[in-house]
Amino acid sequence: MGYALSNLNIMLVEDDPSMRELIRDVLGAFDVNSVRTAIDGSRAYEELRYYTADIVIVDWLMEPMNGLDFLRRVRNAPDSPNPYVPTIMLTAYSDIHRVTECRDAGVTEFLAKPITPITLYSRIVSVVEDQRVYVRSDSYFGPDRRRANRPYIGADRRAGASVVDIGSAQSTQSHMIA
Predict the structure, then answer these.
(1) Which one, of 143, 84, 81, 134, lies nearest residue 109 by Cα?
(2) Which residues pair with 35 in a beta bridge?
(3) pTM of the complete model
(4) Calpha distance 154→24 (Å, rounded)
(5) How many CB atoms lie within 10 A of CB 167?
(6) CA-to-CA distance for 13 and 112, rounded, in angstroms?
(7) Between the chain's N and C termini, which has fewer beta carbons within 10 Å?
């Protein structure tokens, strides 16, 4: 592992006790010392008022508030304790419709179950290394959805089939890594 993750504060929102314990153990193996857990989105939302999370890992399917509703509330509610918190959506359902729905709700990363320590670590590293600016429009608030770093190609940029990203900027993330 290339990063010292001991300074990260991670909120883990997972209703399944076995999965919650597994992820917590993996995070412990990464030397993450501060992991706060919640069993559903509504409890996690309230917990965020008292716990300054650097990253939230949230399962999609939970009751009474699922991970997607939690994410939408964190990103858009006027009383949100941290609308900028990077969020990794965790789910066993990885069809394109779900990935797109998460992206459009403002997810930072997507992680399909079953997870491995390597895939979890790679998503955490992605959050740390690829800190995207946050974008607000009439219909969206969250990290910039453009990921490619391709240079501006001039007036003919729309002639091709690919999307052009004219650059990226640094986000206002906190102290994630020492």
Answers:
(1) 143
(2) 10
(3) 0.80
(4) 48
(5) 9
(6) 15
(7) C
